[in-house]
Queue: 2 jobs
Job 1
Amino acid sequence: MQCAFLKTEKEKLIYAPVRLKISRRQINRYSKNCTMIPEKVKSVLDQQGLEALEFEAGSTPTSEMAAAKIGCEVGQIAKSMLFKGKDGRFRLIICAGDKRVDNRKLKAALGVKARFATAEEIEAQTGFRPGGVCPFGIYHRPILSDNSLSRFEVIYPAAGNDASGIPISFDTLGELVKAEICDVMS
C-alpha cells in the first residue's frame, strides 16, 4: 500500500490511499504502515540519530493524554506553544506539560504583551496543527525553552502530529533548536 498526503484548500493534511479501491477497515489496518511524521521532522531525527514514538492518530494531543500513552509524568511532555506578541512577532515556547504560563513572566521574557496564537496561525507559522507542534524545522521564529523542563532527564516533544513523542534530553533539545532558556511558567 502506498500513502499520499494531499493538501486541501485549507492546507490540511489528509491521509488517502493511492490508486486502490479498499474498504475503510482495510485503510485502518494498513494505515499503521504509513508514517505520519512530517518530512522536515524526520530529516532532523535521522540526522541526529533520534527516533520518535508513534501511536494511533489523535492519541496524544494533550499533555495528559501524551503522558498516559508514553508512560511518563505529565511534566515530561514538552509542550510547544506559539505566542503572538503585540509587536506582531510570533515566538515558540517549549515548556513542561504540568505547568501554566505566567502572563507577567511571559511579558518580561518577550518584552511585549502576548497572546496564544490561533489554530490557523499555528498551522500557518509552524506547518504543524495544534496538539502536534514540533520545535524541529522551525527556523524562522525565535524559540524559547522554559527551565521547568530541566528537572527531567528525558522529555518528550511532539514529532509533528498528535500521535507521537520524541525522547530527548532538555539540553539536547535546546541545542538542536537553538532555544533561549527562559522562565515563563508558574
Job 2
Amino acid sequence: MPEKMNQSPAEMLNQNAAVAQNAEVPAPVAPTAPAQPPQRQSYAEKVQGLTIDERNWMLAKSKAAAMAQLPEGFLPQTYTGNPGACAIACEMALRMGVSHLFVMQNLYVVHGMPTWSGKSCKALIDNSGQFAGRTRYRMEGEEGTDNWGCRLIGVDKLTGEKVEGPKVTVKMAKDAGWWNKNGSYWPKMTEMMLKYRAAAYFARAECPEVLMGANIDYEVGAGDAEEEGVAHA
C-alpha cells in the first residue's frame, strides 16, 4: 500500500491558489441599456413644409380633441363629444380671428348644414373691420303697424360711403310665415326680431364673406320660434 504523503497547511494553500489561477474566469457581462421611448416630434417638426391653412387645420384638430372631452354642459349639444364638429368650429374661429366659444355658441348644424344664429350676425359684421366703428339699427314706419320695420346701417371704412342694408318689416314677417309659427318670437318681441333679421339680411347682402360660406338660421327655416331654437341648440 503506497504511503500517504502528508502536506503542510502552507503547501495546501499554495496548491489551491495555483488551481484557482489556472481556472477560467468568466468575462463580465455588459449591462443592458434600457429601451428608449420613441421621441415625440416638436410642433415645428410636425408643421415643417405645411401651408398656413394646413397648420391652422392641425392646430384646430388638436384643440378640438381637447374640447370634445369637456363635460356635458360646457359646450352646446352639437359639439359635446363631437371632435369633428369641434374641429370645424376651431378652424373657422382661427380664420375669423374670434373666440372658439363664440363660434360654438352661435354656429349650429341645422338639417345637416352649418348655420349662424341670426343674433350673431351683427357681431360678425362689426368684428369684420370693414365698417367704421359699429353699425347702427334704424327703425322705420309706425310701431304697431305692418309697415314697422328696421334696417342696419354702416359706413364703409375704406370709402366712407354710407351702406344701408335691406329693410325688414312686420308685413314681411307675416308674409314669409315667420309671425304665425307655433311659439313664434315675432309677436312677443317684435323689435328685437326685426333687428336680428335686419342684421342677417345686411350680412347676406353687403358682406357675405363674414359668414364664411355658412347659412343663417332664417335661410333654413329656423330661428323664429322657441321650438326651433331648442332643436338646434
